[in-house]
Amino acid sequence: MQNALQPTSILDRYHPARRFLPLLPLIALLAAGGVGCGRRPDTERFFDYGTGKVNLDRITYITPRIKVGIDDFPLTDAGIETVIGHLHDGRWSYFDVQAQIFFDEFVWRVFRSETFDKDENPLTSDDIDSIERELRSALRRYQAIQ
Fold it and tell me: Own/partner pairs for 137-141, CB < 8 Å, 24+ apart?
């Protein structure tokens, strides 16, 4: 009399697929996640910055900054006023002005002025006006992301 708990054939006992049967649900789950199941592409938010796109759903921090020489300021109305005031006062002697938006570790440089030098390329009031317009434009671009 044959025991009911034993396999009926030697093929059933040593079949290679039997060893991997418990892993099949895990393999299916990993494969589904790898191809993007569970995400709806129409609900993802992308920001097109001109030469590429940033998936905003995968970004933790968005930080707008103004960089003048080695100094940093927030890209806000108050930050712009501070920078423009320092430009009128002649605080820096060799510098350029940049408006940057950080998406976690990625940096998008929205604006970069020419490099100014007090002796060779002095800053004029027209330059200051142009820089202020560009910084305000960069601020509006940042606000459009939110």
Answer: 137/110, 137/111, 138/64, 138/75, 138/99, 138/101, 138/110, 138/111, 139/64, 139/75, 139/76, 139/77, 139/80, 139/99, 141/101, 141/110
Q: What is the mean pLDDT of residues 110-134?
A: 95
| pLDDT surpasses 60 at 21 | yes
**Rounded to the nearest 5°, which phi and psi values hold at 58?**
-105, 5
Domain residue spans of the chain: 56-145
Q: pLDDT band for position 44 (50/70/90)?
A: confident
pTM passes above 0.85: no
DSSP letters along 37-101, please? TT--GGG--EEE-SS-EEEGGG-S-EEEEEEETTEEEESSHHHHHHHHHHHHHT--SEE-EEEEE
